[in-house]
Amino acid sequence: MTAPFQLTACLLRLALAGLVFVWWRPCEGNASNNKTVCVLYEASPNISCLLEGYDRNFRPNFGKEALVINMSMTVASIDSVSEVDLDYTITILLRQFWKDQRLAYRGMNRSLSLDGRLVEALWVPDTFLLNSKEAFLHKVTVDNRLIRLFPDGELIYGMRITSVLACKMDLRKYPLDEQTCTLELESYGYTKEDLIFTWKDGNKSIHNLDKIDLSQFSLGDHNTMTSESVYETGVYPRLILSFKLHRNVFFFLLQTYVPSILLVISSWVSFWINHEAVPARVALGITTVLTMTTFITSARASLPRISYIKAVDVYLVMCFVFVFAALLEYAFVNFESTTSKHRARKRLRARKNKNKKQEEVKVLDEAKPLKGPLKAAVMESKIDDESPTSPGLGSTASSTRRRERQTTFFDVASNVVSNLREKRAAFKVEIKDINVIDKYSRIIFPLSFVLFNIFYWITYTF
Predict the structure, then answer these.
(1) Are 39 and 187 in a shared domain?
(2) Does residue 327 sit in the same domain as residue 435?
(3) Single pTM value for the model
(4) Are 237 and 166 in contact (CB under 8 A)?
C-alpha cells in the first residue's frame, strides 16, 4: 500500500474515532447515583439527550416521597364582577415550581428557556381551577406558556389563563356591602400522597393584586391558604387565594339614592297645594308613585333573584311607602273636605226644619189653646208627623188614648236614635279646618323620612 493511501486510511480512522467520541460524550455514566446526566454545551446544546429515556407518564420521584409543587401568580386583571351570576372574570399568570431529577444536566451553569410546545413531552402537574365556570389558555400569537429548566432539574412552568370563577356573595347589605372572593387551585388526579401543593412565599406569592383598578370596587387585603379536598377517590391538595372587594357607593348614590330622595321630596309639594285643586294633587301623587315603581323594577333587574331582602330593597320600598302615603294623605283630606261640606249642609237643613216646626207649633198654640194631655198629643203629632189636621173637641175618649199611645212610641224611638247618635259622635273627631291636616303633614313626613335615613345608614354602614 502506498503512502498516500495509508495516510488517507489513518485520517478516516481518526475521523471515525472522533465521531464516536462526540456521539457518546454527551451521555456519561454517573457512578454516584447510577443515573445518566446529560452534558450540554453553550455552543450547541442538544436537548434530545434530556428526553432520552424520559417517560412523561410518571411523575418525578415516582414510588418515593410526595413531590412538592410550589406556586405563585401574578394577577393581570380582574375584568368584571357580576352580582347577577355571582362570579368574576380574572386573568392570571400562574407559575408552578418543582424538581425533576431526570432533566438535570451539567456543562452549563445557567437556566434554559425552552419552547412552550415542549410541554407536550414533559410531565407537568394536573392543576385545575376548582371554582371555575369556564376558562381558556391564551394562544396569541402562540400558546402563552413558559418552561424554564435549571441545571439541577428545577422546572418553572408558567401559563396565562383567563377564567370566570364563582364567588359566594352575601348581598344583604347591597350596595353597601363588601365581598370575599376566592381562587382555588387543586390537583385533579394526584392525591396528597403523590403531590403536595404550597404557596412559594406565602402572601408574597401573589403579585400585582394591589395595583388592580375596578370600576365599582376597591380591592382590600388578600390571604393565601393551604387546604385539602376529600372525595371518595382520596384526599387531594388544594391552594386557596381569598381577597376582599369593597363596593364603591358613589355610583349608587347618584343612580338610585339621590333620585329616590328627590322623588319623595317632590311628593311633599302637594301639601302646599290647595286641597280643592284635585287634578294637580292627584296627578303629582300618581306620577311619583309610578316613578318609584319604575325605580324598584330597574334595581331588581340588575340583581339575582334571591330570597332575602337587600339594603337597596329596603330603601326603595320605604321611599315608595312615603310617596304612596302622601297620595293617601290627599285622599284623606279630600274625603274629610267632602264629609265636612255634607255635614254642614245637613246641619243647615236640620236647623231650617227645626225653625219651621217651631213656627208651626207656635201658630197652633196661639190658634187653639188646649189643655192637658190632649194639647201635648196634638203638639207632638204636629211636630213628628207634620199633619195639618188636628183632632176636634168632639173626639171620643178611645181615639184620644190611641193618639197618646202613638206619641209615646215615637218618643221612645226618637230617644233611642238620639242616644246612638250621641255615642257615635263621642268617638268621632270632627276636623273643623281641613288645612290643618296638610300643615301637620308638612312636619310629620319630612321628620319621619330624616329619622328613617339616620336609622338606615347607621344600620347598613356599620
Answers:
(1) yes
(2) yes
(3) 0.70
(4) no
Looking at the fold, whether 238 and 355 belong to one and the same domain comes out as no
The whole-angstrom separation of Cα 159 and Cα 163 is 12
Q: Indicate if 176 and 134 belong to the same structural domain.
A: yes
Cβ pair 100, 115 in contact under 8 A: no
Locate cell 263621642: which residue?
426
Grid coordinates given for 138: 391564551
AA identity, residue 428 = K
Report the C-alpha gap between 219 and 210 in whole angstroms.
Answer: 7
Q: Are residues 116 and 139 in the same domain?
A: yes
Same domain (yes/no): 104, 182:
yes
Residues 72 and 178 in one domain: yes
Residues 21-54 as b or e (16 or more Cβ within 10 Å = b): eeeeebeeeeeeeeebbbbbeeeebebebbeeee
Within a domain: residue 442?
Answer: yes
Cis ω on the peptide bond leading into residue 297 (within 30° of 0)?
Answer: no
Q: Judge if 186 and 260 occupy the same domain.
A: no
Domain closes at, from 206, 230, 248: 248
Q: How far apart, in whole angstroms, are the C-alpha atoms of residue 47 and residue 271? A: 88
Number of other residues whose CB lies within 10 A of the CB of residue 281: 24
Flag whether 106 is in a domain.
yes
The C-alpha cell 173637641 sits at 393
What's the CATH number where 158 sits?
2.70.170.10
Residues 203, 132: Cα–Cα separation, whole Å: 22
pLDDT 10s per residue in the chain (462 long)? 455 555 555 555 555 545 444 344 443 433 334 456 888 777 667 788 888 889 999 999 998 999 999 999 999 999 999 988 899 999 999 999 999 999 999 888 888 989 888 999 999 999 999 999 999 999 988 999 999 999 999 999 999 999 999 999 999 999 999 999 999 999 999 999 999 999 999 999 999 999 999 988 999 999 999 999 999 999 999 999 999 999 999 989 998 999 999 999 999 999 999 888 888 899 999 999 999 998 888 888 777 778 889 999 999 999 999 999 999 999 999 888 888 777 777 777 777 777 777 776 666 666 555 455 545 554 555 545 444 444 444 445 455 555 444 555 556 566 666 666 665 555 455 666 778 889 999 999 999 999 999 999 999 988
Domain annotation covers residue 409 = no
Q: Are 320 and 312 in contact (CB under 8 A)?
A: no
- Which of 198, 227, 248 is the last residue before a domain boundary? 248
In a domain, 434, yes or no: yes
Query: What range defines the domain where residue 233 resides?
Result: 26-248
Number of domains comprising the chain: 2
Dihedral of alpha carbons 121, 126, 131, 133, sign: positive
- Contact residues for 452 (Cβ-Cβ < 8 A; gap 6+): 318
